[in-house]
Amino acid sequence: MSSLTAQTILAQLDTERIGCQIEVYQEIGSTNDRAHELARQAAPDGSIVIAEHQTAGRGRLDRRWHAPPGSSLLMSILLRPNLAPPQAQRATMTCSLAAIRAIAQRTGLEATLKWPNDLHFQGKKLGGVLTELGPIREERLTYLIVGMGINVNLDPDQIPEAMTPPISLAAAVGQRVDRFELLLALLHELDELYRTMRAGWSPHESWRRHLSTLGQAVRVGTRDGVMQGLAEDVDADGALLVRTESGALKKVLVGDVTLRGQRIED
Ligand code: BTN
């Protein structure tokens, strides 16, 4: 198994943009923070930051992201896709799809997505995606940071305070998984999908097919309160469309989904 260094990755990478600049840290606060710094210093589209350990890893909705050193893929990608702010989810969808494809390629596992972008396997959390937006100029996003954490070789019992039971790729396949090969597959898949997305393709239909949330009775916690209903569909911008008990179709942009009767929050 090769170790994760910028040199070893660059030596095997054959991509157009993704990974054009690579930083690898043994320890860092959060790779997303470092990627924001790089963005402000005009680093190019496709730059990536990887860490073996984060001391202040963040998850969605102001949560912490825990991963024992060397156990996971912890990476942030700086993207400059020239999107209008409502289209930001396209970049997140593209990265989630790349992760699903890379996982299938390297392990044979069919991971699913719990809305909006949690990677799941058999109802347990394999990983997550945290997208943060840069400033808007002339109605376009100047950049986005897509942070991804994938549980590769960790023992699920090592994750404290997990509200959704965690799982790792190694636990799912019963043997260690080569993080280096998984990373290379992910960067190559993303390069391909990102090129198509920049040319105008929306990942929405492909992303939608992997969502395990659709058709389920859900309880959704949003900043405005809790609603219950049927997760009917998602729209082109990635919002969840929930048919409530009164028959209204409500659009949820940001929230936490719980399957009714079974708590599976982030
Ligand atoms: C979630 O499911 O809540 C999203 C988790 C995202 C975690 C990754 S790990 C790499 C990157 N750096 C961070 O601080 N967070 C993201």
Mean pLDDT score: 92
Strand order of the largest sheet: 1-2-3-9-6-5-4
Name the helix and strand elements from N-terminus to C-terminus, one letter apiece. Answer: HEHEEHEEEEEEHHHEEEEE
Strand runs, count: 14
Number of helices: 6
**Radius of gyration of CA atoms, rounded to a whole number:** 18 Å
Structural class: alpha+beta
Distance between the termini: 31 Å
Sheet having the most strands: 7 strands, mixed
Low-confidence segments: 261-266
Bound molecules: biotin
Helix content: 25-40%
Net shape: globular
Strand content: 25-35%
Index terms:
266 residues, 5-stranded antiparallel sheet, 14 strands, alpha+beta, 7-stranded mixed sheet, binds biotin
Structure description:
With 266 residues, the protein is an alpha+beta fold. The protein is 25% helix and 28% strand. It contains six helices and 14 strands. The chain has helices at residues 6-12, 31-40, 89-107, 169-173, 179-198, 204-209; strands at residues 22-25, 48-51, 72-79, 112-114, 118-121, 124-133, 136-137, 140-141, 144-151, 217-222, 225-234, 240-244, 249-252, 256-259. The strands form three sheets. The protein has a seven-stranded mixed beta sheet, sandwiched between helices. The model is unreliable at 261-266 (pLDDT under 50). Biotin is lined by residues 30-32, 54, 57-60, 63, 65, 74-76, 118, 128-130, 147-149, 266. Biotin binds next to helix 2, strand 3, strand 6 and strand 9.
